[in-house]
Amino acid sequence: MKLPVYLYGHPVLREVSADIDESYDGLQGLIDDMFETMYASEGVGLAAPQIGRNDAIVVIDADPLKEGHPECEGRRLVLINPEIEVLDGSKVTRPEGCLSLPGLSENVPRVEHIRLRWLDENFEPHEEEMSGFLSRVVQHECDHLDGMMYIDHISPIRKQLIRNKLNNIASGRVRCEYPVKYAPKKKK
After folding, report:
1. 156 in a domain, yes or no?
2. Dihedral pair phi/psi, residue 125, rounded to 5°
3. Residue 136 belongs to a domain with what CATH number?
4. How many domains does the chain have?
5. Out of 73, 96, 141, 177, which one is annotated catalytic?
6. What would you report as the CA-atom Rg of the chain, rounded to the nearest whole angstrom?
7. Has residue 187 been placed in a domain?
8. CA–CA gap between residue 173 and residue 175 (Å, rounded)
9. Is residue 177 among the annotated active site residues?
10. What is the chain's pLDDT, residue by residue, as a tens digit (188 residues)?
11. What is the domain range of residue 126?
12. What is the H or E stretch that residue 112 is in?
């Protein structure tokens, strides 16, 4: 089932997600819904907070990026309780977008080389070194689990320059081609 994507300004996007365990009810259904929502929104990754769930779950299908980024080929992942270790502190700046920030794209500095530890949907543990754009996608989605968004990595001056666009998203003055959930209206 396609779920609405929560947009910038919604409080759930700023909460730290809770780890889950095998007793999590309806996990496979949620994962299927997350993939369906991600594909319908033409994204390559989706974190549970983006559908209003404060759970440490991420789905990624980076395969559409394989032409320019061969490390993304065939990479369809379910990440449960992921942990990132930085292996190289030097950063590369590249453009990023986000389903929760429709119509925006900013140049974001990120490290290029990480080690990722996670559980898959069967709670089997995995550990892998990742580089390049795949590493960027993973970092972007895992940021959501820590209550962060890519705009938290851009310069304060750049953030000020897009303030009106952010305010429009937060106040529901933006149109999307996919179902969305706007931030709750502030009480006056």
Report:
1. yes
2. -80, 145
3. 3.90.45.10
4. 1
5. 141
6. 16
7. no
8. 7
9. no
10. 999 999 999 999 999 999 999 999 999 999 999 999 999 999 999 999 999 999 999 999 999 999 999 999 999 999 999 999 999 889 999 999 999 999 999 999 999 999 999 999 999 999 999 999 999 999 999 999 999 999 999 999 999 999 999 999 999 999 999 999 999 987 76
11. 5-181
12. strand 106-119
